Amino acid sequence: MTAAPPPPASGAPGPVAAPPKFAAAARVALADTALRSGLRGAAAAARERRSAFPEPADWEDLREAGRAIKDEALLNLDAHLEELERAVTEAGGTVHWAAGAAEARRIVTGLVRASGAAEVVKSTSAVTREIGLAGALARAGVAVRETGLGELLAQPGEDGQASYRDRAGGPSDDPAVLAEAARLRLRERFLGARVAVTGANFLVAETGTLVLLESEGNGRMCLTLPDTLISVAGIEKVVPTWADLEVLLQLLPHSSSGAPMTPYVSSWTGVTPGDGPREFHLVLLDNGRTKALADEVGRAALRCIGCSACLDVCPVYERTGPAPYGPVRAGPIGAILTPQLRGVERAAEASLPFASTLCGACADVCPVKIDIPEVLVHLRGRVVESRRHRPVPTPELVLMRGLAWTMSDPRRYEAALRRGTRWARLMSRGGRIRRLPGLLGKWTDARDLPAPPPATFRAWWSGRRR
Amino acid sequence: MSSRDEVLRRVRDALGGARGTHPAVPRGYARRLAGTDAADVPALFGERVAENRAAVRHVGADELATAVAAALWGREAKQIVVPADLPFGWLAELDGVRAMADRPVIDVDALAAADGVVTGCAVAIARTGTVVLDGGPTQGRRALTLLPAYHLCVVQAEQIVGTVPEALERLDPSRPLTWISGPSAAHGAGAAAPAGAEGVHGPRHLEVLVVED
Ligand code: SF4
Question: Which residue ranges does the record assign to the LUD domain (chain B) (predicted)?
Fold first, then answer.
């Protein structure tokens, strides 16, 4: 479940052209004024919805417990995964393991083919977007029916021409008319569906139980009506015990909407004769998660329970929207998770840890206490480090080395300050510097610089002493 | 090496020396209701159900059949479905409403065409205004409460617990559970969903009858 609009689906398994850096993609998003005001409205509305509900008196205790539960799960992940596999299998389910996205796509496509179904119904989930499942199924000749209302309204019509909104019931913007049309149309999809694909919010190792939270009920449809249910989940979704849900089922609803409970919470353990699917498959996905797990600081990102609270308070996300973050996850959590899952070799991922002002609002709201700014700073270090070993040093590195040389000697530093102050005052207009020269210009791409005062603090201090 | 072994090997390598540490889980959060909330649990439950945009009524055991009939009449329900083991007494006062029991199993088209469904529940949670169904007595299978447009749920006072931790203690994880806190909503759909477009999938209307003696 996520309260945020999803990033655009990435259908292609590997991008043909390298995705743009965050700043480049963000510039496109920022130029779109309609998008910007929509996003501001959405984030503000989400904040307002949340603040309409009081914070539980024991909120801080719940957060501490949530953090520890997820840490326990991660630090013993191998044992919990094996326990989960045993429990799901005993309850009549089948567990599949996917080391990467391509393997996960192959497994799901193979299962759908084996069922003989020509179409699947699918409920929105971050992980299926991450692996580009919809595109893979479409290429395999399987029609993918998205079932979330948001996706339905945003999706172009199946014939690729008119959007759903245009065809829903004539030229109507009346929500009630649209909703009724959507209800009827989605019903058709569900009643005939034989295979469904969903995600899951939690996988309980002890009992083999999957848990899914949602507002609309399309998840319930997917996991109740078809004959075959395929759930895809990252390995970090494991929680050790059934009792741990008493914490997580309080943290997630409150953090995602403010309400004490999400409208629908479903849990299922394998298959139940006479109720729901006859066949259940769980696909456990690594796809870079073990790389994040190997980083002692970065692994905190795997505690994420996907509540979206950090997105709704993020000043950067509020302006850029989800698209610049790429297909994995958007907002502050995307900025720390995506580079870890996909590596920082390419500019798109390497730029993500820099897509933040480090204001810390995200860490304050995170229900599992992920210190997002700390991880951001740590990852920035990793990006710089990875560039250090390149045969040709990047401009940032040259600059940093130069700075280190200057700042390691007080005389060199003071001389540089004096020179810098004179230059800077020459460049400023109205007390602001809008553009630094040369390579330094990158830094002023997104911000103005106040012109320095005529005398530096050091100069003033030594003058005052005299 | 199978992918299973490969993933597990990667996990072990990634954790290195940290593997096998068990951080203490501080469980200082509230397990029970306290203060004024604890004084009248059914009342708190009723309030929270109402905050979840569901209708709620408190009735005595002897008024239940009348309340069920009145609720269905108010919704103009003509054709309803019920679990096969629903107590006959709950429906004793129906007038002009056809109730179809889920035995033999009702097909999905008929479920989708029904005006409503009447069930009991396994557990209810006061703090969150939630009813939990586990497929046990008076509840039927999951599709029954999913497809009809209206769900009337009967909650006995002794089924209501205060908190989420108490509910989990009572529930059996091996059963398929559905926690319902209000009718189907669309706000999860984000900016793309028009305001007011609600109840696209699950029941659009939820009504709860709390039976107290
Ligand atoms: S990082 Fe924390 S706040 Fe952000 S989505 Fe994940 S759990 Fe929620």
Answer: 110-211
* Structural domains in chain A, sorted by start: 76-287 (3.40.50.10420), 397-465 (no CATH)
What confidence score (pLDDT) does residue A41 get? 78
Interchain proximity B201–A249, CB inside 8 Å: no
Helix axes A395-407, A372-388, angle to 10 degrees: 100
**CA gap A432, B116 in Å, rounded:** 66
Residue A37 above 90 pLDDT? no
Cα nearest neighbour of A211 on chain B: B177
CB A270 within 8 A of CB A231: no
> B117 pLDDT exceeds 70?
yes
Q: Which pLDDT tens digit goes with each residue over B170-208?
A: 999 999 999 999 888 765 434 334 444 456 677 889 999
pLDDT for position A166:
45
Confidence band for A160, pLDDT divided at 50, 70 and 90: very low
Q: Which domains does chain B show, CATH number per domain? A: 39-189+198-212 (3.40.50.10420)
Q: Is the CB of A300 under 6 A from ligand 1?
A: no
**Please, where are the H alpha helices in A168-305?**
175-192, 218-224, 245-257, 289-293
DSSP letters for A3-58: SSPPPPP--SSS-SSPPPPHHHHHHHHHH-HHHHHHHHHHHHHHHHHHHTSPPPTT
How far, in Å, CA of B121 to CA of B159, rounded? 8
Min Cα distance B117 → chain A (Å) is 16
| pLDDT > 60? residue A274 | yes
Global pTM value: 0.85
Q: Is the pLDDT of residue A170 over 90?
A: no
Q: Alpha-carbon torsion A397, A399, A401, A404, what sign?
A: negative
A309 lines ligand 1 (CB under 6 A): yes
**Cα separation values, A312 from A48, A337, A362, B18, B140, Å:** 10, 17, 9, 33, 39
Question: What confidence tens digit (pLDDT) does each residue in A421-455 have?
Answer: 666 666 666 666 666 666 566 656 666 666 666 66
Read off the amino acid at residue A358: L
Residue A190: pLDDT over 70 = yes
| Residue A335, ligand 1, Cβ within 6 A | no
Asked if B52's CB is within 8 angstroms of A217's CB, the reply is no
Pairing outcome for strands B205-212 and B55-60: parallel
Sorted by sequence, the CB contacts under 8 Å of residue A105 that are 6+ apart come out as: A13, A131, A132, A133, A136
DSSP one-letter code for A195 = E
Closest CA to ligand 1's atom 7: A304
Report the alpha-carbon distance of residue A367 to residue B11 in Å, rounded: 25
Residue numbers in B near A367 (CB within 8 A): none
Ligand 1 atom closest to Cα of residue A331? 4
